[in-house]
Amino acid sequence: MSDLLPGLNLDLFNNHSSGGMETTIQLLLLLTVLSLAPSILILMTCFTRIVIVLSFVRTSLATQQMPPNQVLVGVALFLTFFIMAPTFQEVNHNAIGPLIKGKITQEEAFEKGTLPLKQFMAKHTREKDLQLFLNYSGAEKPENIKDISLLALVPAYAISELKSAFQMGFMIFVPFLVIDMVVASVLMAMGMMMLPPVMISLPFKILLFILVDGWYLIVKSLLLSY
């Protein structure tokens, strides 16, 4: 194969030079991250809470597909990178960088790389949720964050994030629900039973959201929740 394609070297693992070994590690690391990226992004970062809260905002406004899903996911994605930047920098400094340079082994890199993520998730995981998975697996109570298994911490963090997101969503729904009730009561009193209250309340809800600078308040609340 190398005779047919002289510019292509497929003998990655038999190349014992430092340059070839470094390239091999980078390639393996890149493939691993790419394959696990969706799961890591959804279940081990703040992405879940952010995208659910933003979806609650759109639902409470009753604006159908405005803003569209692509915009909500894009905003949630960049907010996630912004919030998780210190954690990702710590992972890169403690694990990825030394591994690429050959200073630590893959096992050491995994341990050092998962520690910042464990610290972030444990900070926002309810003790009751974590204890649920620890009891089910029969694991002993960990003495520190290092001893917590990712198999128990990740699902515990996920359901904690879901609860927090739904709590924030409930608080978002309340003022818009009041507007719907007021508009419906006024229409009933005026005898306009055939007129859908949603058509009348929608402009008032959008106006209220603009007057209070709703997107600023929502994003500020998300940032302060971490």
Helix content: over 70%
Structural class: mainly alpha
Which runs of at least 5 residues are low in confidence (pLDDT < 50)?
1-5, 7-13
In total, how many beta strands?
0
Summarize this structure briefly.
The chain is mainly alpha-helical and 226 residues long. It has helices at residues 18-43, 47-61, 69-100, 106-123, 127-137, 150-189, 197-211, 214-224.
Folded structure, characterized:
With 226 residues, this protein is mainly α. It has a domain at 1-48 and 82-123. It contains eight helices and no strands. It has helices at residues 18-43, 47-61, 69-100, 106-123, 127-137, 150-189, 197-211, 214-224. The longest helix has 40 residues, at 150-189.
Provide the descriptors you would attach to this structure in a database record.
mainly alpha, 226 residues, elongated
How do the strands and helices of this protein lay out in sequence?
Blueprint: H1 18-43, H2 47-61, H3 69-100, H4 106-123, H5 127-137, H6 150-189, H7 197-211, H8 214-224
Helix pairs in contact: 2-3, 2-6, 3-4, 5-6, 6-7
